[in-house]
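User: Structure tokens for this complex, please. No commentary.
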Amino acid sequence: MTATSHDDAFVVFDRVQKSYDGEILVVKDLNLQIAKGEFLTMLGPSGSGKTTCLMMLAGFETATSGDILLGGNPINNIPPHKRGIGMVFQNYALFPHMTVGENLAFPLEVRKMGKSEREAKVKRALDMVQMGEFAGRRPAQLSGGQQQRIALARALVFDAELVLMDEPLGALDKQLREHMQFEIKHIHENLGITVVYVTHDQSEALTMSDRIAVFNDGVIQQLAPPEDLYERPENSFCAQFIGENNTLMGTVESVTDGVAAITLDDGAKVRGLAVNCGGPGSRTTMSLRPERVYVGGEEGLVTTEAEVKELIYLGDHIRCRMHVHGNDEFVVKVPNAAGHKHLQVGEKTLISWETADCRALDA
Amino acid sequence: MVNTADSSQDIAHSAPVTGPVLGNDGRPLKASLARSLRRQKLRALGLIAPLLIFVLLTFIAPIADMLFRSVENNIVGDVLPRTVVALKDWDETTGELPDNATFKAMALDLKEAVEDKSHTRLGSRLNYEQSGISSLFRQTGRKVKRLDVEETTDFVAAFEDMNKKWMDVENWQTIKAFSGRFTDGYFLAAADLTKGPEGIERVPENEQIYYTLLLRTLKMSLIITFSCILLGYPIAFLLATLPLRTSNLLLILVLLPFWTSLLVRTSAWKVLLQQQGVINDTLVWLGLVADNARLELINNQTGTIIAMTHILLPFMILPLFSVMKTIPPSYVRAAKSLGANDWTAFWRVYFPQSVPGIGAGSILCFILSIGYYITPEIVGGTKGVFISNRIAYHISSSLNWGLAAALGTLLLVVVLGLYWLYDKFVGIDNVKLG
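Assistant:
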């Protein structure tokens, strides 16, 4: 489903740059291809340029340089209302002076659609988000989740092929947010629309997306499907930003067959997968997921010493904070399996990991 | 402090006994609550007391006094008590003079009135209703001193002797018509009506002023309000959409007129608008207007509308601005993303949400302008003055305070009526001032 070339891509960002003041680039040389029917998420901390990219695609910001193509045609000079892109805004932007039905009919009215056709489409869109009985209500009379559904229905009612969503679930509570994530995902699958979704919530991105573009500092740090992004982060920003992560700082001694031998800052020697660490002598950050660390030394694994600092019982697993080679915040998840090792605070123990699970990344 | 405690116990005892919720000290919960809130309430009252007293003395009391003055008519009954009683039996519709006893009563009343000169005040009061009565009372007052009440029997002849006008039935009719303690005469006058022998009738066309003046005031206030909307809306829109620093600077420019004296601003318009003024000179110099056909921009309605629009503009811009600032830009963006062009997005989405601002600004401008006085006085000439200028005239020049009060009351009623209409059709809850 992922687009690899200009030709089969539905949306293309081609060397796009954006600056507001002529001094600082908010978006630096963005190249991105989105396939038809894809669910692509732009994920990143605030100020990383993800929303600016979305606004450029919607037409509310103009690219300072570079081209944006939609269905093969450059849209830089097409005003937003002629792009035919549906959009769901952060605060829904439902028109408060219109009823739900009027809100949904608005995009059809401005397209000069006949009344009966309009009503049929509005009804269908409302049914799709299970809000059929609410056509006569005002947005202010709806709960946050209901408003969210209406905003979604309004973005879909005029059969847009591309729908942009700017942190649409940010204002909902956790349970409702998770529920809506699935609903949006289902609607996306049923309608076959292309969705570009902006969020700063990494779990949201992981659940919903076909691919995730991780933004930082105006640059896409990594563009990959969720599993790749979580399991094979390519740089330390992605490793830190997505999921929980343990880091160990060190210097590369040698690289053989893709495996780097590394001396940690306190002198201990470990091995890790050489991903993005440079040659011998360069600084590196080793990244290791908490669930990939085992307590106790095992043959064939990288084994090192650790000291237990804190234990938190979480039912299915025990969260164990350890001191490992200068890192006081090293977390290990010990599964609450039959016969697991019972640790004590202050106890010195061995921990180990697979070489492939410990990724040597940029410093 | 002791008193407070005592009286709060009173409250506790006087609370209804039928199943009140009791606190853990056995007292009704409501009483305990009232006690604990009492100090707060007293403190709040203490804080607003100065303003409350000030408003009562300087605002509520004068309005009440004005309402009262517009119908009050004690003077006739006070100065001519016997005459008023005697006139009760006289049938004014027959066209005949009152009987001798009434003339005698008038003589006795006047003799007393002359002592404290109250007959001249009565004269000027009745003169509002019928011209000429003032001089009649003054002249008679001088002669009545020499009239010997004990010796005289034919008072009709005696009065005819003093002044022939006493034989005019109309004067007596007027005295009788306005002998009550309260009168509707001021209100009738304010509505260009008068009380004739056949009941209420319109005053002759050439004497009608107030009706025309009230209509003109309302019409011009509407025009001024509308011009304020036309000029203020784009400015407020710009202010609300510009970045904060720029909009603050522009806002200062909007507020600048507030910091200049009203008189200075109005006088400046005089300089600009007069026939030999800056605007006419420029137009003539540009060749747009012939030198012998300079525009009349001042001392007429045009002058009043131009100057008032300028003066009231900030009152339109500020509420508009404060409402527009609360409309998030995402609404217009949403409309555009849904396919609306710039105009449709503005007209269907932005404008309806700015209506509360227009409402608030219009109410402010309209109500301020129908009561405006200084500017129409200076630039309005005779054709561009408002009803308030007439009120001022009656207060300071003609001293007919009753009529001024009636006109003022009428204006108040019109404002309240419009306010009610506005509430009915737009809803006062929709007005946002900030």
